[in-house]
Structures are given as C-alpha cells and as structure tokens.
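Field: COMPLEX_INPUT
Field: COMPONENT_COUNT = two
Field: RESIDUE_TOTAL = 465
Field: MODE = joint
Values follow.
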Amino acid sequence: MGIMIKEKEIVVPGEDLATGMDYLPSYGTFREGEKIIAGKLGLVSIDGRLIRVIPLSGKYMPKVGDTIIGKISDVTINGWRVDINSAYSAMLSMKDGTSEFIARGSDLTKYYSFGDYIVTKIINVTTQNLVDLTMKAPGLRKLGEGRIIHVNTYKVPRIIGKQGSMITMIKDATGSRITVGQNGVVWIQGEPENEMIAEEAIRKIESESHTSGLTDRIKEFLEKKKQRSDEK
Amino acid sequence: MRKDGRKLEETRPITAKAGVIKNADGSAMFQIGDTIAYAAVYGPRELYPKFLQDPTKGVLRCKYNMMPFSGSGERVKPGPSRRSVEISLVTEKALLPVLNLEEFPNAVVDVFIELPQTDAGTRCAGICAAAIALADAGIAMRDLVSAVSVGKVNEQIMVDLNYDEESTEGEVADIPVAFMPKTDKITLLQMDGEITKEELVKALEMGKIACKEIYEIQKATLKEKYSGESDEE
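Field: COMPLEX_OUTPUT
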C-alpha cells in the first residue's frame, strides 16, 4: 500500500508508482488493478492524491490556449493551413485571421502568404486533433525578418524562465526581439551577430536546463560574449 | 560450458545508450556481444499517403535493415530483402502491444533499426534498441519490451546464441523471443529448427529470466540519459 517512488524521480514506462486506491492516476499514468503505473518517460509529480508523470521528451501536442509560432503551409478557400511543428497541422480560418473584413473570393495571400511565420494562439483542439487557430489576441502577429530555431518543447518553460526572467535577460543583453512559441519554435530578430549570441544562449539553456544556477551561468555567458563583441 | 566460455543461461555482455542520434525524436544503441543495433524513432508525425491513416489510432512503422558490411564480410545486397521485410513486420508486432497509439490518431511513428555489425540475435537486439528509443521519444507506453534468443545446440538448452552456435552442424533450434517484462507476456516467438515441447518450455523459462536482466539494463540506460533532470530547480 502507498507510494513507491519519490517526487521528481525519473520513471520509465511500465514502472510501478503506487498501489492502493488512495492515489489517483493523472497525466502520463494509468491504473491497472490496484497499481498506478507510469505510461511515459518523465518526472514524477505528486500533488495531493494525484500522481502525474511530466514528460521530458517528445513531439509537441497541441493544447488549447497555447501561444505558438506556425508557418503558413497552404492557402485554402476559407483560410490558411499552418504547420505548427507537431504531428498535426492547424487551420486558421478567414474570420479569425485578421480584424479587417475580408471580402469573399479575395486573395488571401495578401494577408499571409506561403512560408510566412505567424505568432498565433490555439482556440480549439478536437478529439481527432484538428486544430483551430486565431490571430485575434494581443501580441499575435505576422513575423518579419529574423531567424527561426527549433527547440525541445518541454524546455520552453526553462527558456522563458520565471515570469519571463530568462528570456528578458537574453533580450536585454543582445538587444534582439525574441518570441518563444510553446511548440518549441523560437523567432529571433536583431543584429546578425547578436542573433547568433541569442541562439547560442538558448541552445545552452536547452542542453543544461537540468543544472542548478543556470540563470547565473547564462548571465555570465552573455556578458562574456558582449565583452568580446565590444572589443572588436 | 560453451565455446566462448559462457554458462548456458548467460547472455553475452550488453551495453546500451539512449539518445545516440541527435536528429531523431528518440534513439538508442543496443549491443549484445558482437551484435550492434541502432534504433531511431521519428514521430508522431503526419502520415502520407493518406489512405494509410487510421482515424482511431496512430500507426507504427518499423524498418529493419542489416548494413551491407555487417555480417562476415561477404557483401549483402543493400535494400529490402525477403528476410528484412519479415523481420520488420515481426518487430512491429512485437512492439505494438506496449504502445498507446490512441493519443495521436491519423499520425505515424517511424522506427528505423540499423545493424552495423551482426553476430546472430539481430532481431532481438533491434527490438531491445527500439523499445529504449520509443520511450526516449516520449511515446506513451504500457511497458518496455525485452528480447533474447534461446535455443538448443548439441542437445543443450541455452540463451543468446551467437553466430558460431547458431550455425553448428546438426540439430540446432534457434528461438527468438520477446517479453513484456512486467507481465511476462510474450510478444514475439519464432523458431528455426527442431525442439521438443518440454525443452521449449525450459528454454522459454530461461529466456524469461534473461529478459528480466535485459529489462534492468534498458531501464538503467533511460534513467542515465535523463539523470540530470531530477535536480531541476
């Protein structure tokens, strides 16, 4: 009876987490008879009676309310098809596309054309994982010049940091504009050299996300890079 | 005692590593003796051609391939053969029972298994590597899969035959078997050769124990890759 693992322990699929009915299986776990078993590789999180497994790897799965960066992959009769770096593509309908009125039959590529990147928000996900997007919320826009990089979607919270502390630090140090999508797509715009420094910093966060004192190390890294570029 | 000094129930030395292929969503290397298997998992991703899509659950696609230089040095013709197509299929069937594919309807998970060096037991090594790679890719699973070959050589029941043993003159039985280690259910069972019922039961029992050992290695491999993650602030 009871719990068989510690909080924040790494579990592999099939591992026993708890026995008895005192605990409830939540995301990433399932019940088999008396036991609660891990259904994914990840970190265990125990919240009262709920046992969850927080995944550490894998493709982005669309979730309602996520702000993501997508790429226009097709223009259809009533909207745009958007590649959202997931197993599923999303639809941005004409009426959610802009705040302007779009007359029927008008050329939709005027607003977003093939290959354009947009910051967008997921408003609906069906059981078949059909995804609907909107552009009608603050901060959602078409992205201009800049560079796009892809990161592990489960590292996005670390890249943003607590209340955006980490990303603000990188933005300030490099003087670039950065947008991080929940789907692991990052857009950086600034001086080419600064863009590279920002990208390097983000890659560093991604690979060292698990170590403690990361914020300080990134700060140090950015300062060092800045010094070097000042010297030149 | 066997030719290479192993005990009958002893497997060859095993090493494994997760995350060996950067581009893949999940990957693993599994080496047992001189047999080396690499598995790379891509997906879930969109499945084309569209008629292959299943609206009720995701699809698993496996591809097993021995590299042309992998065997004894005789060049194998590259590309699919009757043998590799069959092994791809049984690998798929061996892995399916542990996967929860309902989470991503209409999508596909691709598993590529490549063997740069072979010394018998390749499909088992491939399945072991694929199980690690699938877990590494964050796919929902009920369990891992562990596989080993068992068999009979010179009237002796043994575990994990190498090529030398497998190709012995006379009566040889070679039985690759895959287990879901938690429930002891068999997901793959094939046979080459002749064996009596009693011997088969005994061989499978030995295989089950060997698979438990392999399972512990698979588990440790995965935990090692992510070991740093638990002291997240």
